[in-house]
Automatic annotation (TrEMBL), chain B:
<feature type="transmembrane region" description="Helical">
    <location>
        <begin position="140"/>
        <end position="164"/>
    </location>
</feature>
<dbReference type="GO" id="GO:0004129">
    <property type="term" value="F:cytochrome-c oxidase activity"/>
</dbReference>
<feature type="transmembrane region" description="Helical">
    <location>
        <begin position="184"/>
        <end position="204"/>
    </location>
</feature>
<feature type="domain" description="Heme-copper oxidase subunit III family profile">
    <location>
        <begin position="29"/>
        <end position="205"/>
    </location>
</feature>
<feature type="transmembrane region" description="Helical">
    <location>
        <begin position="102"/>
        <end position="120"/>
    </location>
</feature>
<dbReference type="Pfam" id="PF00510">
    <property type="entry name" value="COX3"/>
</dbReference>
<dbReference type="InterPro" id="IPR035973">
    <property type="entry name" value="Cyt_c_oxidase_su3-like_sf"/>
</dbReference>
<comment type="similarity">
    <text>Belongs to the cytochrome c oxidase subunit 3 family.</text>
</comment>
<dbReference type="GO" id="GO:0005886">
    <property type="term" value="C:plasma membrane"/>
</dbReference>
<dbReference type="InterPro" id="IPR000298">
    <property type="entry name" value="Cyt_c_oxidase-like_su3"/>
</dbReference>
<dbReference type="InterPro" id="IPR024791">
    <property type="entry name" value="Cyt_c/ubiquinol_Oxase_su3"/>
</dbReference>
<feature type="transmembrane region" description="Helical">
    <location>
        <begin position="29"/>
        <end position="50"/>
    </location>
</feature>
<keyword id="KW-1133">Transmembrane helix</keyword>
<feature type="transmembrane region" description="Helical">
    <location>
        <begin position="70"/>
        <end position="90"/>
    </location>
</feature>
<dbReference type="InterPro" id="IPR013833">
    <property type="entry name" value="Cyt_c_oxidase_su3_a-hlx"/>
</dbReference>
<protein>
    <submittedName>
        <fullName>Cytochrome (Ubi)quinol oxidase subunit III</fullName>
    </submittedName>
</protein>
<keyword id="KW-1003">Cell membrane</keyword>
Length: 336, 207, 640
């Protein structure tokens, strides 16, 4: 039959397209090619639900196309239309079958929901990180990394192949913590603490996003997740916990300028406006979470943060002379 | 058929006058629906209050604050006014306009007494440091109890307005549903207050 | 500036209308104009038309906002509309489309058609009906004034706290949102009450509940949803107003408040709201599919029960909008299963539509084209809905473009398609003119293709990691191509809508009148002339079964059998009070927005004065005598 052939063609094109599209996304950001256990579990459910739904869709579309072709009004032909009331049997069929399909979906759904919710570590030495969302940046405080406690911002480093437990805190407005390639999101709610776990099966770099509208800079509230091998992670922790001492004159001058102009927000335990911890700024790969890490971009950011990230709460540092600016940047870029 | 009754006609036979005309029937039905909506509205305010009642931010707690004697007296006034409102409707359906006006008057006075006690209570709380802006508890308390108070105020104005109209026009088929609705509204306010009394005051005292 | 303007207008209105003695002749002449007639009308058909057209006007505004957003997102790192401006666009787009376009246009169709379908001469509360319209109208104007005075709201149409609180949205925008929607919302509640009372009390003899057309049934359930779903929004907006304008602390976590309460209240309203706008769409589609297949609606009774069940379940699933808030696996699981359950009655509907067409004779007129396009589109939207109900998967979808794609498939593919279908279907009944078939088909195909081009790729954008409500995205993240395709699709929808407007203008100019029953209809509205006389039915029709008019036609009758002798018909008088009462609230709303207590008090006082005038006025309407009815009917015949 013509209609059936056409239908199969449509369906196979559709399936092919879906397959092609799935590989289209960037693997650092794509929820369809997960690199973490939670992401895998979520993809399993996504796939199961898509398959069930495609089955339903195929049935509906088959009947639909058949009906449209078979029963369309043909020129010059008048058909006697029987005014039927309905059919109890059919009604039962399309009530019971969906219930069965939904039951098939509901069981693994509930199981996975509970599995993912078990976000308390079983052992004392599991890595715990306190994540805090601010307009428009992320703070990561390591609570027990190799027995040490320290803060970073915009970059979350984790050991690969290990479950990391996150405590999600909010201070200002709602945000949502999302690393599509590793795991689904959880909201950052001011006034309450959420928990989740995350892992990356392989070392790699993953893109994180804020997924809840949080103001003008929402689109640019990005962060990155770096998964390291155990050795690399230990090195990183060691580096982050070794204080940086300015060496050159420029760096020392820069430190002075930093202390005069920046620490009220960036290194104060109780600031009015909280800024990210910059003590290891030199090790970062991005500035403000979005610009690549070089002096041109640093200058651009310092002189007019809002032109980079709308709504950024950092004031313009455009009142320094060239030498002062240079020293400040030298200090920041060298703080490793 | 009811449709040939003119709204300005005066009923001659006692009975359920509010539903004698189609307009009356529509009004009664519409008003019940409105009360359904109002129920949801208060339910939301109750939910908010119950969720926030312990967020006192260092201000007085529910145990310290509430004075059951005062609230009990206010409750007595309001519950009694519901009874007098029933008596008024009873008089209306017996076509006894004079008695109806009397009982409506008593209802209004009791409502006013309730309102005065409530205002006194609020003033007292403000002196204790429990204000609309002092904490989430304060905000949700005044939002709930204040909305109820606003309903009482509106009800009083409404009943007074209807008393004036009845005095001018007499008890007509147009007035009967109006009076009936105001009485329904008054009972509804009363029921809400019963919930406020238990869920806010009694529960607040218990803990 | 705005303050002064509003005061001036208000004084003028007061002076002109309350004194009346200033220039009586002018007033008299003004009262006989068409404009005055429309401003003061309580005729459900005119109110419906005003609802529909003003809803369409807001639809164009909301569409323009969407075009701007897609322009910004066409290429990565674009800087056309960034940051706060983009947030204003997305907030106003959502708010406008839901509250000022979809709902009013639906109310418009319900208002015009539902009373005709049940054989009523009017709605239960004509005055309240007019009041509801004017509240919507002034609320919508207030909301949109924000663009000019003080900045539009920018916290999303969901207006989540604490972003929507003063500390984080210090401008006036969110105040406009709160007060504009509050005023509009009161109007919606009134409409809901009015429609229910109409359907219960005003049916013509023989029109039992299980003989009511599907559109009337869906209107009935939608109205019930309105009555119980609007109050949570009222409370949410009231509390947000307290927080923003009067310094309360309900949602402020620093003062012990909770931002999650807002989410609960908003979604207890918000989820039923989705059904408020989709159920009438189901009704419209049921009517059209049945009419153009020349066949009785398959499984009518199960359709009715499915509608009621969807309405009921609509109140038990709101937490599925909050799966990522962290309410715990138990609550997430319960609401997940409840949400999945809704798929069952919805599926029943889809299969009943398919089997209505099965064995029928399908005429592909424009309304039917929309209905046919609607079925697969809505099925996709429903399928992604089931997918979203799975909490762990939702952790990925939530707040991503996947959700954007999903609800546009439901709201555009469902509601907007149905509104266009309904427009083509009932235009002759509303205006007495036919819309062009040719233009209609262009409209459909352009819009249909454009729609899928815009929104289908967005499913994948979401899965590829693009959050919603972002004003830009980075290059080289695999998001460029699909965003570009999505933006190009908008051209199709825009052109389609332009074709619709051309068709409307063409019909308005055309001298050709529409016949009473252009589609070989089945329900009562097709048994009376187009456009409908103000009294609707000269004699109330006697209904002998479902598809009442079709039954009579099958029995060889040209008209319905009357259920009463020809007699004088009572009509309600028009009134200027609804418009002014709403204007008072508009002024009060403006006063609260700009924190001018004087203007606020004037507005409220004005509204109360109007309420008292209304309460004390005695106007029992007028009668249309049989001679007049016969006369106008004869006059029509002569013309024809």
């Amino acid at each position: 039959m013509v209609s059936r052939q056409r239908l199969w063609r449509v369906l196979s094109v559709f399936a092919l397209m879906a397959l092609l599209l799935a590989g289209c996304g960037d693997p650092r950001l794509n929820a369809l090619t997960p690199k973490g256990t939670a992401g895998d579990m979520q993809l399993d459910l996504i796939t199961l639900s898509i398959l069930i739904m495609l089955g339903v869709f195929a049935v509906v579309i088959t009947i639909f196309v058949y009906v449209l072709i078979r029963y369309r009004k043909k020129k010059g032909v008048t058909r006697e239309v029987k005014q039927v009331h309905g059919s109890t049997l059919l009604e039962i069929v399309w009530t019971v079958i969906p219930i069965i399909l939904l039951a098939i979906l509901a069981v693994p759904t509930v199981q996975t929901t509970f599995k993912l919710a078990a976000a308390q570590p079983k052992t004392e030495d599991a890595l715990k990180i306190k994540v805090t969302g601010y307009q428009y940046w992320w703070e990561f405080e390591y609570l027990n990394a190799n027995g040490k406690r320290f803060k970073t911002a915009q970059e979350l480093h984790i050991p690969a192949g290990e479950k990391v437990y996150l405590e999600i805190h909010g201070k200002d407005v709602l945000h949502s913590f999302w690393v599509p390639a590793l795991a689904g999101k959880i909201d950052v709610v001011p006034g309450r603490v959420n928990t989740m776990w995350i892992d990356a099966k392989q070392p790699g770099k993953y893109q994180g996003k804020c997924a809840e509208l949080c103001g003008a800079g929402h689109a640019l509230m990005d962060f990155k997740v770096y998964a390291h091998s155990k050795g690399d992670f230990d090195n990183w922790v060691a580096q982050q916990t070794t204080p940086y001492k300015p060496q050159t004159v420029a760096e020392k001058e820069g430190e002075k300028i930093f202390k005069q102009n920046c620490i009220s927000c960036h290194a104060n335990p109780n600031p009015k406006i909280k800024g990210p911890d910059l003590s290891k700024f030199g090790t970062r790969e991005t500035i403000a979470g979005i610009l690549s890490h070089n002096e041109t971009n640093l200058k651009k950011w310092l002189e007019d943060p809002e032109s980079v990230k709308p709504g950024a709460r950092m004031p313009k540092i455009n009142y320094l002379n060239d030498q002062e600016m240079k020293n400040l940047m030298e200090y920041l870029m060298k703080s490793k | 058929m009811a449709s040939h009754i003119h709204p300005t006609d005066r009923p001659t036979k006692p009975g359920h006058l509010e539903k004698a005309t189609l307009e009356g029937k529509n009004k009664v039905m519409g008003f019940w629906l409105f009360l359904g909506a109002e129920t949801v509205l208060f339910a939301c305010l109750f939910g908010t209050y119950l969720a926030l009642r312990n967020s006192t931010m260092g201000g007085p707690t529910t145990q310290e604050l509430y004075d059951l004697k005062l609230v009990g007296l206010a409750t007595f006034f309001l519950l009694t006014s519901s009874l007098t409102s029933v008596l008024a409707m009873n008089a209306m359906n017996r076509l006894n306009v004079r008695a109806m006006q009397f009982w409506l008057g008593v209802t209004v006075l009791l409502g006013l007494a309730f309102l005065i006690l409530e205002i006194y209570e609020f003033v007292h709380y403000v002196h204790e440091g429990h204000t609309f802006t002092s904490s989430a508890f304060g905000s949700s308390f005044y939002a709930l109890v204040g909305t109820h108070g606003a309903h009482v105020t509106f009800g009083i104005c409404w009943i007074i307005g209807l008393m004036i109209q009845t005095a001018r026009r007499g008890l007509t088929y147009e007035m009967a549903p109006k009076l009936f609705l105001s009485s329904l509204y008054w009972h509804f306010i009363d029921v809400v207050w019963v919930f406020i009394f238990t869920l806010v005051y009694l529960l607040g005292k218990v803990g | 500036m705005g303050t002064l303007l509003i005061l001036l207008v208000l004084t003028l209105f007061l002076a002109a209308i309350l004194t009346g003695g200033y220039n009586k002749e002018f007033l008299l002449r003004a009262r006989q104009t068409k404009v005055w007639d429309w401003l003061t009308t309580v005729d459900h058909k005119k109110i419906g038309i005003m609802y529909f057209l003003s809803g369409f006007f807001f639809l164009l505004i909301g569409g323009l906002e969407a075009i701007f957003m897609r322009l910004q997102l066409a290429v990565p790192n674009n800087d056309l509309f960034t940051g706060d401006i983009f947030n204003q666009l997305l907030t106003m787009h959502g708010t406008t489309m839901i509250f000022l376009a979809a709902m009013p246009m639906i109310f418009g169709l319900i208002n015009v058609i539902m009373p005709l379908q049940i054989g009523a001469r009017d709605v239960a509360f004509p005055f309240l009906n007019s009041l509801g319209f004017w509240l919507f109208f002034w609320g919508g104007i207030l909301l949109n004034l924000s663009w000019f005075f003080g900045g539009a709201p920018n916290a999303g149409w969901t207006s989540y706290t604490s972003l929507a609180l003063n500390s984080y949205s210090p401008g006036l925008g969110v105040d406009y949102y709160v007060l504009g929607l509050q005023i509009t919302g009161i109007g919606s509640l009134m409409s809901g009450i009015n429609f229910i009372a109409t359907i219960i009390n005003m049916r013509t003899p023989g029109m039992t509940f299980l003989r009511m057309p599907m559109f009337t049934w869906t209107s009935f359930v939608t109205s019930a949803l309105l009555v119980f779903a609007m109050p949570p929004l009222t409370v949410a907006l009231l509390l947000l107003m307290f927080d923003r304008v009067f310094g309360a602390a309900i949602f402020d976590h620093a003062m012990g408040g909770s931002s999650v309460i807002w989410q609960h209240l908003f979604w207890i309203f918000g989820h039923p709201e989705v059904y408020i706008v989709i159920l009438p769409a189901f009704g419209i589609m049921s009517e059209i599919i049945s009419t153009f297949s020349k066949k009785r609606l398959f499984g009518y009774t199960s359709m009715v029960f499915a509608t009621v069940l969807i309405g009921f379940l609509g109140f038990m699933v709101w937490v599925h909008h909050m799966f990522t808030v962290g309410l715990g696996p138990m609550s997430n699981s319960i609401f997940a299963v409840a949400t999945m359950a809704i798929a069952v009655p919805t599926g029943i509907k889809v299969f009943n539509w398919l089997f209505t067409m099965w064995g029928g004779e399908i005429h592909f007129k424009t309304p039917m084209l929309w209905a046919v396009g609607f079925v697969p589109t809505f099925v996709i939207g429903g399928m992604t809905g089931v997918m979203l109900s799975v909490p762990p998967a939702d952790y990925q979808y939530q707040d991503s473009y996947f959700v954007v794609a999903h609800f546009h498939y439901v709201l555009v593919g469902g509601t907007a398609f149905a509104l266009f279908a309904g427009a083509y279907y009932w235009w002759p009944k509303m205006f007495g003119k036919m819309l062009s078939e040719k233009l209609g088909k262009w409209h459909f195909w352009l819009f249909f293709i454009g729609f899928h081009m815009t929104f289908f790729p967005q499913h994948f954008l979401g899965l590829f990691g693009m959050p919603r409500r972002v004003f830009t995205y980075q290059a080289n993240h695999g998001l460029e191509l699909l965003n570009l395709i999505s933006s190009i699709g908008v051209i199709g929808m825009t052109l389609g809508t332009i074709f619709f407007m051309v068709a409307v203008v063409q019909a308005a100019r055309s001298k050709e009148l529409a016949p009473a029953d252009p589609w070989d209809g089945r329900t009562l509205e097709w048994s009376i002339p187009s456009p409908v006389p103000e009294y609707n039915f000269a004699q109330l029709p006697l209904v002998r079964g479902a598809d009442a008019f079709w039954l009579e036609k099958q029995a060889g009758n040209k008209e319905m059998t009357p259920a009463e002798p020809l007699g004088s018909i009572h009509m309600p008088s028009g009134s200027y009070i609804p418009m002014l009462m709403s204007l008072g609230l508009f002024v009060a709303g403006y006063g609260f927005v700009v924190k001018s207590w004087i203007i606020g008090a004037i507005g409220i006082a004005f509204t109360f004065i109007m309420m008292y005038i209304r309460s004390f006025e005695q106007d029992f309407g007028y009668h249309i005598e049989p001679e007049e009815i016969n006369g106008s009917a004869k006059a029509k015949e002569v013309k024809a």
